[in-house]
């Protein structure tokens, strides 16, 4: 499964999310979109949902600390888990949550930078989508900034 992971879009309008998704879709194709929170508006969340429904893409999305509408705080599916904000500086809480959910991949947000916290299970933060950061996962974890690959990590998936 090819996974696009984003977080912290901090966008306010539907057209902004549509532009972001269109741009990302120029660089990578994916089956699952994971959003680790901080949409900021329900309009942006709805744009993401419409995009996924229209393109046959599965979606996992959680509420961030800047979201004032109802979404779950933790979700999992397709062997992937997602939560917005880690509670511990060393990400131990995210690690144990991944183990509890029995997932191979755990995505978190909030920190606005690329982070690989563990390789087994794979635990990472995809960065700050508002600045054009996103992560792509397909046998290799790759981080992108405005469409340019800036870092990659090998792992067993």
> Which fold name is given in CATH as the topology?
Purple Acid Phosphatase, chain A, domain 2
Largest sheet: 6 strands, mixed
Strand order of the largest sheet: 3-2-1-9-10-11
- What is the CATH superfamily? Metallo-dependent phosphatases
From the alpha carbons, calculate the radius of gyration and give it in angstroms: 14 Å
Provide an overview of this structure.
This protein has 157 residues and is of the alpha/beta class. It is 24% helix and 34% strand. The protein has three helices and eleven strands; from the N terminus they run βαβαβββαββββββ. It has helices at residues 14-27, 42-55, 92-101, and strands at residues 3-6, 32-35, 58-61, 74-77, 80-83, 105-108, 114-119, 122-126, 133-137, 140-145, 148-154. The chain has a six-stranded mixed sheet with strand order 3-2-1-9-10-11, covered by helices on one side. The radius of gyration is 14 Å and the shape is globular. The N and C termini lie close together (10 Å).
How would you summarize the topology of this molecule?
Elements: E1 3-6, H1 14-27, E2 32-35, H2 42-55, E3 58-61, E4 74-77, E5 80-83, H3 92-101, E6 105-108, E7 114-119, E8 122-126, E9 133-137, E10 140-145, E11 148-154
Parallel strand pairs: 1-2, 2-3, 5-6, 6-8
Antiparallel strand pairs: 1-9, 4-5, 7-8, 9-10, 10-11
Helix pairs in contact: 1-2
């Amino acid at each position: 499964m090819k996974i696009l992971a984003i977080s912290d879009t901090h966008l306010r309008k539907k057209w902004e999310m549509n532009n972001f998704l269109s741009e990302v879709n120029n660089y990578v194709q994916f089956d699952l979109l994971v959003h680790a929170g901080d949409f900021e508006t329900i309009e942006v969340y709805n744009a993401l949902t419409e995009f996924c429904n229209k393109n046959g893409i599965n979606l996992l999305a959680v509420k961030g600390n800047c979201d004032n509408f109802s979404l779950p705080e933790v979700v999992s599916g397709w062997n992937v888990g997602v939560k917005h904000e880690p509670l511990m500086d060393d990400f131990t809480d995210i690690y144990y949550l991944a183990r509890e959910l029995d997932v191979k991949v755990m995505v978190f947000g909030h920190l606005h930078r690329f982070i690989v916290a563990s390789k087994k299970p794979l635990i990472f933060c995809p960065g700050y989508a508002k600045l054009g950061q996103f992560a792509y996962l397909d046998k290799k974890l790759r981080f992108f900034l405005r469409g340019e690959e800036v870092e990659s990590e090998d792992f067993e998936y």
